[in-house]
Amino acid sequence: MKKVKKSLETRCAQALGWIEKETSSLVPSIYPSTTFIRNSDLSYNDGRAYTRADNPTYDQASALIAELEGGKSAQLFSSGMAAVVAVFQTLKAGDHLVLPQNVYCGTRTWVEKYASSWGIEYDIIENNDYKILEKIVKKNNTKLVWIETPSNPELRITDIGRVVDIAKSVDALVVADNTLATPVLTKPIEYGVDITLHSATKYLNGHGDALIGALVSKDENNTWQKIKEIAHDGGALPGPVETWLLLRGMRTLYIRMNKICKNAEIVANFLNQHPQISKVFFPGLPTSDGYEVATKQMNGLYGGILSIRVKGGYKKAVEVQAKVNIFKRATSFGTIESLIEHRASYEGPRSNIPDDLLRLSIGIENSKDLISDLKQALE
Ligand SMILES: *Cc1c(COP(=O)(O)O)cnc(C)c1O
Can you give the C-alpha Rg of the chain in angstroms? Predict the structure, then answer.
């Protein structure tokens, strides 16, 4: 039998092709056990003692995420936010952090609520203002520069390589929240990013049935060791069932992302010509600010999320989301069914999102159905 080189797409579909030794099963087992037998000489088989340190269900899902992102190692968390906070917890009092203004609201809220009381200094800057970034990063002080591209919910596109160059000039770590792009579109580690972050609750799981997060590291450096300790010591780890659902979901990641992104382009082009819409945020429109960078950085696709501003303000936007019937009114994104959300009211008083904005997460349905639904809702 001759070995054939497998593409990442094939490796993903086969979940790395692992076969369980004990059972020969192609689909791995779920290991709910929280504790593992200790030998009479006080050793542990496979080094596993207790699930907060390690559970066998984590192995395959972690290995697949690490390989998809082109990293050395992955750590799973109980949610995307637990992964976000684990990164911030590597900072010490006096360290400086830079965050873009348009970013997942939970990330910004965490920084605004807790960073100061922990002694962490921070600046929140315009997403693509590289000049400001150059000016505010400080040698010996700026430890972390945060990227989220495309950003949520304005779909701003950041030139990852440019941010990495600026951050590296002061030896700051770069973390990229890659939840929206997924490694099918962008692998931030290829651009020099140190750590990639996922709310795996979204596209990686893909079916809206598991809350889970992940970090992937380019190197197994000191910060990464610290993150592994934070995961173990804090215990914000996923359950084995969620982890299993994540692995199951990831097997169809490529086919889902391809269909979702193609659908999103079709819907974006329809909405962009609709007289009731004042603006479409979608990096795949040649008129959008991020188009050029997105084209070189997103593997020929533009993501599955778009936001629209509806003419007539808050009242009209609420009317439109009330009238859909194929789109589901729900928060979150990255599921197989299409979702629509009035974002400002979901984010609440801390939101900086205009109140005529609706965010659409495009699914794998027939694009003609999606357009018909939006057409009747906008009438
Ligand atoms: C949802 C989301 C998070 C938070 O993840 P949870 O799994 O909900 O905790 C972080 N970043 C982005 C971009 C997200 O969309």
Answer: 21
Q: Which pTM does this prediction carry?
A: 0.96
How many A from CA of 224 to the centre of ligand 1?
A: 20
Give the Cα separation of 281 and 277 in Å (integer).
11
Task: Dig out the tokens for 19 from the structure.
Answer: 């076969």
Check if 197 has its Cβ closer than 6 Å to any atom of ligand 1: no
- Are 86 and 236 in contact by the 8 Å Cβ rule? The answer is yes
What distance in angstroms lies between residue 29's CA and the mean position of ligand 1's atoms? 27
Q: What are phi and psi of 242, to 5 degrees?
A: -60, -40
The residues annotated with a catalytic role in the active site are: 52, 104, 177, 202
Residue 377's closest CA among 363, 360, 364? Answer: 360
d(CA 347, CA 350): 7
DSSP 43: -
Q: Is the CB of 149 under 6 A from ligand 1?
A: no
Query: Model confidence over 246-257: pLDDT tens digits?
Result: 999 999 999 999
CA of residue 4 to ligand 1 center, whole Å: 37
Q: Is the pLDDT of residue 216 over 90?
A: yes
Look up residue 201 and give its two tokens: 């609750």
Both tokens assigned to 31 = 């290991």
Task: Determine which residue's CA is closest to atom 5 belonging to ligand 1.
Answer: 80
Amino acid identity for residue 182 in this structure: T
Element (H, E) at 357: strand 357-361
pLDDT at residue 370 greater than cutoff 90: yes
DSSP 335: S
The label of the residue with tokens 């889970």 reads 212
